[in-house]
Design brief:
Length: 442
């Protein structure tokens, strides 16, 4: 409804904070009054989409050190999120009382926002910017990185892994969440912490049905709203190497990214660089928080720093393609020219690549990234390549397969589905439609 007041409360992760922006822009365009509660580092940054005075500081981001190992990393990350919510929720409750929104919007990790809304009786809407957390008997449990299989032994496997996930991997987070509810005077809920911040009223899932496994029990209030498209950078200009690397290899350039949380180039970028050299492909590698100098950048990498002479036999042939390394290049600028997107598996980047019809090669098994790679593989839109530090030869073979006709067709199928959806448009209409029905949490 026009004139509605919406308060977005983001979890203390930059990507999730940024991913709220399309929804808030869509709501603003439809006459809603928008507020955004964000962690201290992003007040005043492009990670918010609200007028001056409508951006609210919810507190600092606590330090997090990955313990190493995928299972331990997942366990520690969710325990960290719940511990952060226990600190942040008091500020968030006061903010909800001050703003008095008609509805609260949270991401699927926004425990503080969801709990504050429940505590004060304000309806809340969640959005998902990763694989669906909703459980299903045939679906591998979130975080397991297992393939989708329907024969009975695999279904039993899902049940066993689900129990182990809740009672062992997520035990510390689960205990912390129960204690946090009790401290807020909320009744006990026998719900896994992974699902605790999913709204019972409306969940906006960024993606398309083609990227999710078939589910018999998916709630009716879950709606797929398409690909997130982060706001474009201000003042960015094409670098001097653009024509040589990108325009000169239109349709075949490889775009590779390390991700926002992990900056060790040995995990994705270094083996990708070696694979590109071995197969004479052109590429653009973005390091994010990592230093481009570790890979010979910024700019086009000199041959002497790119792993020696090219090897033939992995699809190589012809002159060596140029490879550029930069801290940041907008994906949306490169993807129209790309043949493959190599990534550790961030959901936003994967969706953006598939929205351009570009096949995805997901590398590694950290956090929930293998779950994403498995879904891409199941959709026929790319491949999952496990291992924390793949060998260049294996990555070169993965590149050759991902460029194949079948995966290109699969990526185009997903792109066609994503093209019918838009988070800003569809999300805003669904949120305002919910308010028009007079929903409450009670």
């Amino acid at each position: 409804m026009r004139g509605s007041r919406v308060l977005a409360l983001s979890s203390p992760i930059y990507a999730h904070t940024l991913n709220a922006v399309p929804f808030l822009e869509g709501l603003t365009a439809r006459g809603a009054e928008v507020h955004h509660g964000v962690a201290t580092p992003w007040v005043g940054s492009r990670a918010v989409a609200a007028p001056d005075g409508s951006v609210h500081d919810t507190g600092p981001v606590p330090a997090f050190s990955p313990p190493g190992g995928r299972v331990r990393d997942v366990s520690a990350r969710y325990a960290w999120l719940v511990a952060d919510a226990a600190t942040r929720v008091r500020t968030v409750v006061r903010l909800v009382e001050e703003v008095r929104p008609d509805v609260v919007l949270t991401d699927s990790l926004g425990h503080a926002g969801a709990l504050a809304a429940e505590r004060l009786g304000v309806p809340w809407v969640s959005f998902g910017d990763g694989p669906l957390h909703f459980p299903d008997a045939l679906t591998p449990p979130f975080g397991a990185g297992l393939p989708y299989r329907t024969p009975q032994p695999w279904v039993w496997r899902n049940t066993v892994v689900q129990v182990a996930s809740r009672r062992v991997v997520m035990a510390r987070a689960q205990q912390g969440y129960a204690a946090l509810r009790a401290s807020l005077g909320l009744p006990r809920r026998d719900v896994p912490v992974l699902e605790a911040s999913l709204s019972p009223l409306l969940h906006l899932h960024c993606g398309a049905p083609e990227l999710e496994y078939p589910r018999a029990d998916l709630p009716d209030h879950v709606h797929f709203v398409g690909a997130l498209r982060p706001p474009g950078p201000t003042g960015w200009r094409r670098p001097d190497w653009w024509d040589e690397v990108v325009a000169g290899h239109d349709g075949s350039v490889v775009l590779a990214t390390q991700g926002t949380l992990r900056d060790d180039p040995a995990e994705v970028l270094a083996p990708t660089l070696a694979a590109l050299r071995a197969t004479c492909r052109a590429g653009v590698l973005t390091t994010g928080s990592g230093d481009p100098a570790r890979l010979g950048g910024p700019g086009v990498v000199p041959d002497r720093l790119a792993g020696g002479p090219p090897r033939h036999g992995d699809g190589a042939g012809g002159a060596r393609g140029p490879v550029a390394v930069e801290r940041f290049v907008p994906y949306s600028a490169v993807l129209p020219h790309a043949g493959v997107f190599v990534t550790n598996g961030g959901w936003t980047g994967v969706l953006l690549a598939l929205a351009h019809g570009v096949p995805v090669l997901q590398v590694g098994s950290t956090e929930e990234k293998a779950d994403i790679g498995r879904r891409v593989e199941w959709a026929g839109a790319g491949l999952h390549l496990g291992g924390s530090r793949p060998r260049p030869r294996a990555l070169a073979r993965g590149l050759a397969r991902a460029e194949g006709t079948a995966y290109r067709a699969g990526a185009r199928r997903v792109a066609a589905s994503l093209a019918t959806r838009d988070p800003g448009r569809d999300g805003a209409e669904l949120v305002l439609g919910l308010l028009g029905q007079g929903w409450t949490n009670g």
